[in-house]
Write a structure and sequence with these properties.
- The protein is of the alpha+beta class and 159 residues long.
- The chain has a domain of 109 residues: 3-Layer(aba) Sandwich (Aminopeptidase), CATH 3.40.630.
- It is 28% helix and 40% strand.
- The chain has an eight-stranded mixed beta sheet with strand order 1-2-3-4-5-6-8-7, sandwiched between helices.
- The longest helix is centred in the middle third of the chain and has 15 residues.
- The chain is globular, with a radius of gyration of 16 Å.
Length: 159
């Protein structure tokens, strides 16, 4: 458990017993949510799965895939009643710190082009836009593009 300096706020491992609460947040947040089986697969795989809680109440979650020296944010979401209050930024900073601790060189994510609040947050945390993935996300009416964003975590210097 990690206290991140706000009132009774902690980040801890996402447990199988958290699935009902995570699914409730996922369903309220996305028009086309992840399925329960995708979360179960992440919990059983080598993915890092985290939740952020306030006063014991689950507020959001993040799923990170680690491959070699790269970290890839697969999903991050905060409950709608706690959105835009810093929970997402705290959780993002935590998973970035975890990636740095495991010596990842690069942190990747995709974000819907329509999600301007998330895009602004990622830019403010040092991410750069490196491309567009056309038709990446399913949407209620077809597909939606994703911005591919990266954060360089360490720079190898050659002498």
């Amino acid at each position: 458990m990690t206290d991140i300096g706000q009132r009774d706020l902690e980040i801890r491992e996402f447990l199988e017993s958290d699935l009902d609460q995570v699914m409730a947040i996922e369903l309220e947040s996305y028009p086309i949510p992840w399925s329960r089986s995708l979360f179960e697969l992440s919990l059983k795989s080598a993915d890092e799965c985290w939740v952020i809680c306030e006063g014991g109440a689950l507020c959001g979650y993040a799923i990170i895939s680690n491959v070699l020296d790269e970290a890839h944010l697969l999903n991050i979401c905060i409950s709608q009643k706690r959105a835009r209050k810093g929970y997402g930024r705290n959780l993002l900073r935590y998973v970035i710190a975890r990636a740095i601790a495991r010596e990842a060189a690069m942190f990747f994510l995709e974000v819907r082009v329509s999600n301007s609040a998330a895009i602004d947050m990622y830019f403010s945390e040092g991410f750069n836009e490196v491309g567009v993935r056309p038709n990446y996300y399913p949407a209620k009416k077809g597909r939606e593009d994703a911005l591919l964003m990266t954060l360089e975590l360490k720079v190898d210097q050659f002498v």
